[in-house]
Amino acid sequence: MRRRRELPRVSVVVPAHDVERFLPEALDSLLAQRGVDLEVVVVDDGSPDSSGEIADGYAARDDRLSVLHVPNGGLGSARNVGTELVLDRAWGEYLAFLDSDDVLPPGALATLAESLQGSESDFVTGSVVRWEADGLHEPPWMRRLHRERLTGIAAREHPEILGDVFAWNKLYRLSFWRSQGLEWPEGVRYEDQPTTTRAYLAGAFDVIPDVVYHWRIRADGTSITQQRASVTDLGDRLLTKRMALDAVEEYDDAGTSAYFVDRVMAGDLHRYFTEIPDASDEWWDLLVTGIHDLWGERSLVESGLPPVHRLVGWLVERNRRADAESVVRWVRTLDGPAPRDGRRLVVPPEVLDLSDVAPEALALRDHEIA
């Protein structure tokens, strides 16, 4: 059996804000990790509840855990504060992040560290399951991204992995994080994507199929990423997409850029399109402007969105809100995918006058034909 000092040294930063219901379970799962020498830094981000006191209680019982109490600065700021302490201490070899309402499955950190010890890559990313009311579910897209074990690869070799934007299913070499000057954007939501994109583009990485993270989906909608109809949420989403796109364009690889724009950057737009009928005029104007800014002359009909959402995207590009609302309301009434006829999407005439719709906005691809 390896002695403790020979175990991989992993530092984990845990931001905490208004999570007293979840923090004990998160910390218990972290402190129960085996096969690694562990350092935990909890950042009490000006929490209005007892999260800070809970963390202090854990620190009093376990000397592997320390707590920083700071004024509220948001998730990105809290992660940066904790990481700065880890870098100053220079105690460990590896850096990881855990959100305080989520859970690590047993052996997750050891599994990630084992990959890096074998490959000498700069970081590793594992699969994730969503922790919902009816149990744990691995999203099909996450399973696809992690379908095989890959080691020491570059972004241009596996550009679809740029869609795995999460901060917390990864383990980084501390030396890589420091040398690249990585940090999380502050003052915005969806801060994960710009930083993880920069990491993918800067280093060699491993992709493993193992599930290393349990992501809690809050049924009450209190997560900051479950409020898409707000102008603030949409603005932050568009801003962080722009930051990630800028990094990809600087990478200067045509194949990676095309895949990112069509598949990765467009991937979550359908979640916003569903909000169109209930959103404000300001939100709609921001959506139209943002899509024009990010996609320019390249239409969303070229993207990897499902057929009906490619149609909605085409309508958004043309600022046809009434038509976009009509299509989204119709989609809400369907029990399954939108109907199709041969190589064409079928939309009832009372929903949308197809005489004024470009054929490419209704076209199906080979794999979409029933």
From TrEMBL:
Coiled coil segments of this chain: none
InterPro entries reported for this sequence: Glyco_trans_2-like, Nucleotide-diphossugar_trans
Residues covered by the Glycosyltransferase 2-like domain: 11-147
GO molecular function: hexosyltransferase activity
Superkingdom of source: Bacteria
PANTHER family on file: GLYCOSYLTRANSFERASE, UDP-GLCNAC:BETAGAL BETA-1,3-N-ACETYLGLUCOSAMINYLTRANSFERASE-LIKE PROTEIN 1
Official protein name in the record: Glycosyltransferase
